[in-house]
Amino acid sequence: MKKIKKFIHRKTLIYKTEVEYGDYTMNHVLGCCHGCLYPCYAYLLKKRFGEVKSYEDWCEPAIVENALELLDAELPKFKNKIQMLHLCFTTDPFMYEYDEVRDMSIAAIKKINASGVKCSVLTKGVLPIELAQMSKDNEYGITLISTDEAFREQIEPGAAPWKERLSALKALHDAGCKTWVSIEPYPTPNIIKQDLIQLLEKVNFVDRIIFGRMNYNKVVTAYSDHKHFFNTCATEVIAYCDKLGIDYHIKNGTITPQCDTK
Ligand code: SF4
To answer: What structural domains does the chain harbor?
Structure first.
């Protein structure tokens, strides 16, 4: 297990967002030990605004020490407006091997549910089985873009091994929880050659699949056929989900018109 070495204090926590998973979000940690190299949009944002100095600084998470107090103060104000509170937008609520982050996330979800608000959760860590004791309206998700562990180590160096991630999600599904998978950012074949159907077969017990292309990456755009490739992948996801009765969402910008393939 790893210990948190940095602590910060914030004035506010809950805010409105445009993400598909929830209309409001909260980030009770600054930084993320997973250190994804897609690159991570949250890291680029925090670096641009001077909240973290470097990649190394980003990978050493700082916990918001007053996050639970902020929730107590803000939930009464927000609870009637929120459809779904998403954990998290710019960090990971179940950061791999950080018990302090996990414990704070569980405490936060308990408070949020106690105020009558449901949560969506997305992680590249390990979802704890204690979540099965919380509101069955919550939705628990993992990101999974590959079942190649060597590729996972290369592109998500600090995240949980994919099998650990997936078995924790399956355990929550088996315990009657709503589960989902985010297959995003899905890489092009010049980054890794893989079979999308095999990946879908690994996750086909979930209630919902979100699929999105890899963006912000020169290697992707160097793959001349990338638009056609993502269109084909999206078609495969839709057909697969339709066949099995799985809910799905294709992220904006993943499908582009066929005439716009140059
Ligand atoms: S898990 Fe999410 S927040 Fe953490 S480094 Fe990866 S992309 Fe960024």
So the answer is: 6-260 (3.80.30.30)
